[in-house]
Amino acid sequence: MSNTTSDLVQKLNIATYWIDQIYPLLQIAFGTFGNVFNIIIFSRRALRSNPCSLYFLVGSIDNCVVIGIGICSRYLASSWYWDPSATNIVLCKLRNFVIYSSLTLALCFFAPIISCILPIVLMSIFGILMILNVRRVHNQVGRHINNARNERLHSNDRQLAMMLLFQILITTLISTPYFALAIYNAVAIVMFRYKLSPSELASYNFANNLFRLLHYTNPVITFYIYTLTGPKFRVEMKHCIQHGLKSVLTAIGLVRYLPLRARQVLFGENQVMNTINIISLSQSRRRGNGVHPTQQKTTMSMTPVA
């Protein structure tokens, strides 16, 4: 093996190592934050009555499980050489159930292909059926409610359907490289027993590791897809942030130190103006009942000294 090939293999191995060290941490951090936010938003009263919201809510809970059991445990095992499933019988059985299903055992070297195609197909089928069912229900009850409310419901359904469509599209794009490499592995390496050279093996390991991590980004990015594609989702996210900041600032007593504009954003225009009017009225009453400091000083200066 030449020096150039040896240098290439070494650089690819180093790149693979650092990708394994850094990328899963970003997946765990951003995925946990985003899916917890999804659960909070889709549990709000404005969205939880919609069947599409129930689908997104269940999907976010499932994504948290995938991040906790799949990505996190794999990162601990590969980077820190600590596998919780090796010492905990419950985690061991749960992980084996998630990873090694009966279909995967029957078609072991086609498992990556199935893991790429099956979620997309199921997501598309159930998503289309869910949207058709929601439209059918709304058409049945549409004549019993006013036009404004009916239009609002249809607008929410269109937004949620658009969010689902973009999720399927991005999931397909992200999973395609891993799917293509899995086909190459199944056909060339497994079936025809093609032997890779050291440089080809290093390139294959690098690509396989990168595309696998990219494939496992699907449960991580749903929150960011919904934020970019759903106006209603952004409105509810803004309300959640406002409510959280208001609760924290009220609890620690910093609300009175905020500028007027910031209080208007947090509490709303009417509530802030009512608060200001109440404070102004109470101050006016205190001034009306008391003696003004200037008048008190003038009175004291005019009082003759005995």
TrEMBL record:
It is found in: Membrane. The chain crosses the membrane at residues 22-42, 54-77, 97-130, 160-190, 210-229. The keyword Lyase does not apply. One of its GO terms (cellular component) is membrane. The keyword S-adenosyl-L-methionine does not apply. SUPFAM superfamilies: Family A G protein-coupled receptor-like (SSF81321). Residues 286-306 are annotated as: Disordered. CDD domains: 7tm_classA_rhodopsin-like. Residues 92-226 form the G-protein coupled receptors family 1 profile domain. Its main location: membrane. Keywords: Membrane, Transmembrane, Transmembrane helix. Residues 292-306 have a biased composition (Polar residues). InterPro entries: GPCR-Ligand_Int, GPCR_Rhodpsn_7TM. This is G-protein coupled receptors family 1 profile domain-containing protein. The lineage of its organism: Eukaryota, Metazoa, Spiralia, Gnathifera, Rotifera.
